[in-house]
Amino acid sequence: MSTAEHDAAEAGTAPDTAERPATLRVTDPTRVRALAHPVRMDLLSFLDDVGEATATECAAHLGQTVANCSFHLRTLAKAGYIEPAEPRGRERPWRVVARERNITPDPLDPASRRAVLELGEISVRREAERYIDHLRHVDHDGAVDPGLIPLTQLTTSAFWATPEETAELIEGMYALMKRFDGRTVDPAIRPGGARLMRLFTAINPDMAVEPHAEATPTAPQQED
């Protein structure tokens, strides 16, 4: 995020849409820790879903007080995750600075690595609880639409791949999601019957297993 966009968020004015970054990259430990709070993560997720919302709308959705949501929204704005949207008369809605956020630790900064670890722990637990709540909700409802059963999947897999192949796989997954871009902020482009879907993926090297050794080049055979 540029300095100009951060200053605009703190001043209470929204920067021009054309200046908004496609992806927000964060490594600074202070900014990472600003996100590592359940209410702030819920607020950011809600703004991702609806495009923009006021503190009052956020409070109604999260079951929090308006004052509490206002405090956490200001904290997110100060850290550069959200910014003021176009005012609606006397209402002051907020919106995310960027739809995509890349929270990456600085490998040379122990504080950055610890901050991302803390955020990762909260994120994984939050997504796991959300998925379990979904399963319990479906079971509690009794009869389930058979067409929705294939849409709830938990997949685990193990495979051998080089770092380059793994990076290519990750990029391919991002590319697949690009086809749904824009549907959150523009309901007009959503096809009939579309539902709000939740996707959580995780990929990591198994540190308990040693990498496969480099192949030893075969010595050329000497001709007689």
Task: From the structure above, extract its key features.
43% helix, 5 strands, 7 helices, two-stranded parallel ribbon, mainly alpha, 224 residues, disordered N terminus, three-stranded antiparallel β-sheet
Polypeptide structure, described:
This protein is mainly alpha-helical and 224 residues long. It has helices spanning 3-11, 29-35, 38-50, 55-62, 66-78, 110-140, 163-177; strands spanning 23-26, 52-53, 82-84, 94-96, 100-103. The strands form two sheets. It has a three-stranded antiparallel beta sheet with strand order 2-4-3. Helix 3 (38-50) packs across helix 5 (66-78). It is globular. The protein starts with a helix and ends in a 47-residue tail after the last helix. Mean pLDDT is 85; it is low at 1-18.
Helix content: 40-55%
Series of secondary-structure elements, N-terminal to C-terminal: HEHHEHHEEEHH
| Radius of gyration over C-alpha positions, nearest whole angstrom | 22 Å
Largest sheet: spatial strand order:
2-4-3
How many helix segments? 7
Query: What integer is the average pLDDT?
Result: 85
Shape summary: globular
Q: Report how far the terminal alpha carbons are from each other.
A: 67 Å
Summarize the main sheet.
3 strands, antiparallel
Structural class: mainly alpha
Give me the count of strands.
5
Strand content: 5-15%
Low-pLDDT stretches: 1-18
